[in-house]
Amino acid sequence: MEQETWSQSFVAAMTALWTKVASFIPDLITALIIVLLGFVIARIVDAVLSKGLAKLGLDRLMTGAGVTKMLGRIGIASPVSAVIGKIIYWFIILTFVVSAAETLGLARVSATLDAFALYLPKVFGAALILLAGLLLSHLVAGMVRGTVESIGADYAGGISRLVQGLLVIITVSLAIGQLQIETQLLNTVIAIVLVSFGAAAALAMGLGSRDTVSQIIAGVYLRELYQVGDRIKVEDREGVIEEIGTVKTTLVDDEGRFISIPNRTLLDKPVSL
């Protein structure tokens, strides 16, 4: 009697186990098909997107903006188009893995992967903000450099790098905010730096640099009045203009000596050609 009871229990347990295995196998096959389909679709999208972005000139644009060089410093040797393609590749695979986990009834795994998948668009958004900010900072730095050089200032490179650095800092702050990371302290530091820089610049321009500023402005007018190679005479100094610099103009006299004259002097004193 006891042996029959034990046999019945064993048969019942094996039947229940086989029923679960039999019901799980179709779900497992379906999940594997979903994952395999995800890999195929991800590869196709990766190839099409990478080649399309490369043909549109994204890699050349990012190289000019310095993004490719920055990626190389952190160990990423692939072009930007390939990096974007791989990011989309893994995002598609993750989406299909979430679907496969739901098919298998793995609720906790599915919920975790789903939360991660929902966070990825924020990461993409932050990456786009960072790329756009780096590109914009490069373009603005070039414009600032060209503008400063057009007035003959010698510190065009320093000013352009300073502007680019400030824009990069602001871009990083915006990208971190997109990731929903607390940036109040960082924003406060940036505001303090900007205000301090503005106050220092205003103080320098208003006090210690008034004469320098007047010389720079005079240089702008001198470039409209004279050209390199013109022979001029001011007071007892005479020579050929060698250079109209930021704050002074350099002449070369008949003996080959260089004569430096403040730009403001050439505007205030009579000059004969």
Pick out its properties.
membrane, SH3 type barrels, 273 residues, 9 helices
Provide a descriptive summary of the structure in words.
Its main location: membrane. It is a multi-pass membrane protein. Keywords: Cell inner membrane, Cell membrane, Ion channel, Ion transport, Membrane, Transmembrane, Transmembrane helix, Transport. One of its GO terms (cellular component) is plasma membrane. The model has no long low-confidence stretch (mean pLDDT 75). The longest helix has 54 residues, at 2-55. Helices cover 75% and strands 9% of the residues. The chain starts with a helix and ends with a strand. A hairpin with a 3-residue loop joins strand 2 and strand 3. It has 2 domains: 2-150 and 157-179, no CATH class; 212-272, Roll (SH3 type barrels). The protein has helices at residues 2-55, 58-64, 67-73, 80-103, 107-150, 156-178, 184-208, 210-225, 263-268, and strands at residues 231-234, 237-244, 248-252, 258-262, 271-272. A 5-stranded antiparallel sheet has the order 4-3-2-1-5. Helix 4 runs antiparallel to helix 5 (107-150), helix 6 runs antiparallel to helix 7 and helix 7 (184-208) crosses helix 8 (210-225).
